[in-house]
Specification:
Blueprint: H1 2-13, H2 20-43
Length: 45
C-alpha cells in the first residue's frame, strides 16, 4: 500500500508539466498550418 502512495505522490508532482504535451503538439503543427494558410491566401489572388 505504501508503494501506491509513493507512486501517487510522484504522479501528483508531474502535474506541473501537464502543459508540455499540448504545447509540443502546437509547436509541431505551427509550420504546417502556416504553410497551408499562406498558400491559401496566395491562391486567392
Amino acid at each position: 500500500m505504501y508503494a501506491f502512495v509513493q507512486l501517487q505522490q510522484l504522479l501528483d508532482k508531474t502535474r506541473a508539466f501537464d502543459f508540455l504535451g499540448p504545447l509540443a503538439l502546437r509547436l509541431y503543427l505551427v509550420p504546417i498550418f502556416w504553410m497551408a494558410g499562406t498558400k491559401k491566401l496566395a491562391d486567392m489572388d
